[in-house]
Amino acid sequence: MKCCLYLILVALTPLILVSCGGGYKGYMTRSYTVKGVHYQPLSVDQALQYKQEGIGSWYNESKFFGLKRGNTSLGEKVMAWDVSAAHKTLPLPCVVKVTNLSNGKSLKMRVNDRGPFIPQRIIDVTPRAAGKLGFKKQGLTRVRVEVVSVGDGKYKRKVKRGWFRR
């Protein structure tokens, strides 16, 4: 009996101790290279002005049929039902508003990963985000991406909106 309880505890420990985040503070703006292509992330000030339209897609970083968490570029754990995104050049982490231009649905989400590394795609979102935006079945859609904030905690900077800003 004691052996069975021990085995159950060992089996459930990863589920109990799952981390919600990588504990990253500040901003990740370090340049990097993927498949021979060099990427230089935007500065925080540049990112706060970021607004772009293009093709959005979805990806699943989790493993083993969505039952095992995947890791993001920030070291955060992510599951298929999380709402987050990957971007090639925005500082990590940041929050963006993604709008599906074909149906008008929009959603704010945390960008905590790098990608998509496929030409003409500007953002990858998790399966749940794609479902909420209404393009999971299609796989791709035209989107608008606007930065809402950059950074976490005391490093967080928000886009200034108001009478004297665009």
For the report, how would you describe the main beta sheet? 6 strands, mixed, barrel
The strands making up the biggest β-sheet line up spatially as 3-9-6-8-7-10
Instruction: Work out the radius of gyration.
Output: 18 Å
Give the CATH H-level superfamily of the domain at 51-153.
RlpA-like domain
Mean pLDDT over all positions: 81
N→C terminal distance: 67 Å
Succession of helices and strands: HEEHEEEEEEEHEE
Oligomer: single chain
Instruction: Name the shape in a single word.
Output: globular
Strand and helix map with partners:
Layout: H1 2-16, E1 32-34, E2 37-39, H2 44-47, E3 51-58, E4 70-71, E5 77-78, E6 84-86, E7 94-100, E8 106-113, E9 121-125, H3 127-133, E10 140-150, E11 157-158
Parallel strand pairs: 3-9, 6-8
Antiparallel strand pairs: 1-2, 3-10, 4-5, 6-9, 7-8, 7-10, 10-11
Key attributes of the depicted protein:
single chain, 166 residues, alpha+beta, Barwin-like endoglucanases, six-stranded mixed barrel, two-stranded antiparallel sheet, 11 strands, globular, disordered N terminus
Describe this structure in words.
The protein contains 3 helices and 11 strands; from the N terminus they run αββαβββββββαββ. It is of the alpha+beta class and 166 residues long. The protein is globular and about 35 Å long. Mean pLDDT is 81; it is low at 3-23. It is 16% helix and 33% strand. Strand 10 and strand 11 form a beta hairpin. The longest helix has 15 residues, at 2-16. The chain has a domain at 51-153: RlpA-like domain (Barwin-like endoglucanases). The chain has helices at residues 2-16, 44-47, 127-133, and strands spanning 32-34, 37-39, 51-58, 70-71, 77-78, 84-86, 94-100, 106-113, 121-125, 140-150, 157-158.
